[in-house]
Design brief:
Layout lengths: L1 H30 L4 H10 L4 H11 L4 H12 L1 H7 L2 H5 L5 H6 L3 H9 L8 H29 L9 H17 L4 H17 L5 H14 L1 H8 L1
Length: about 230
């Protein structure tokens, strides 16, 4: 099928990214005491990438369902804006419409925005296969990590730092890519302020809420700086 080969070619770089981050997630979940089927199912049904990495220490520390829900909303709220640009395209895809919404991650969004479809190619089928392959890459990586955590006996101390490393890479990329440093500085000031005020157990959600409000207010100067 031409559409499958086209989707595979355009998502192959994402395979390696999702594979290794998925493995780290699977090992983290396994180390926290969760089974291989549950870890694999969580990646299949949640499929939230960075949120899944965040939820592991939150669950092991006994965070409430409300805290997890709020954190998921603030981390993944950007997907709302991603989806707005694809409402018309996805809505005409019939039964695939809900799945396209579920699987619209940062990487899938990037591919769908930049991809140049070949002539005589079914664009809707190709877009669906791009989303499906990215989803399966993540599930596969999580499964491999879960199996490694369950069946390979090795010292996994320090593996939890993979989540921190992942976000550090994102922060560095944001700092280098964008002209305006206001989002970074806003987040840094809010995080440090609430950390000192509320302590490490309670600072995260107030920080996210304050950052969201501050960035809405700072939208115009940020956009002016970005040109």
């Amino acid at each position: 099928m031409r559409e499958f080969h086209f989707a595979l070619k355009n998502t192959l770089p994402i395979f390696f990214t999702y594979l290794f981050i998925g493995i780290a997630f699977g090992i983290l979940m396994s180390d926290a005491g969760y089974s291989v089927p549950l870890i694999t199912a969580s990646s299949f049904f949640i499929f939230a990438g960075s949120m899944q990495l965040v939820m592991v220490p939150m669950m092991t520390s006994g965070a409430s369902l409300l805290s997890l829900a709020l954190m998921a909303f603030f981390i993944n709220a950007r997907h709302i804006f991603y989806g707005i640009g694809f409402i018309e395209k996805f809505s005409r895809m019939g039964w695939r419409y809900p799945y396209m919404i579920l699987t619209l991650t940062d990487e899938t969004y990037s591919v769908l925005c930049s991809v140049q479809y070949e002539e005589d190619l079914d664009e809707d089928t190709a877009a669906f296969l791009i989303a499906l392959l990215d989803h399966m890459y993540w599930v596969f990586g999580s499964f491999i990590g879960a199996c490694a955590g369950q069946f390979l006996q090795f010292d996994m101390r320090g593996i939890e730092f993979s989540a921190t490393a992942f976000f550090l890479v994102v922060v560095v990329n944001q700092w280098q890519q964008y002209r305006s440093k206001l989002p970074f500085l806003t987040a840094a000031v809010c995080a440090l302020g609430f950390y000192l005020l509320l302590g490490k157990e309670y600072f995260l959600i107030p920080t996210m809420i304050t950052c969201l409000a501050a960035l809405i207010l700072l939208r115009k100067p940020i956009e002016a700086k970005e040109g």
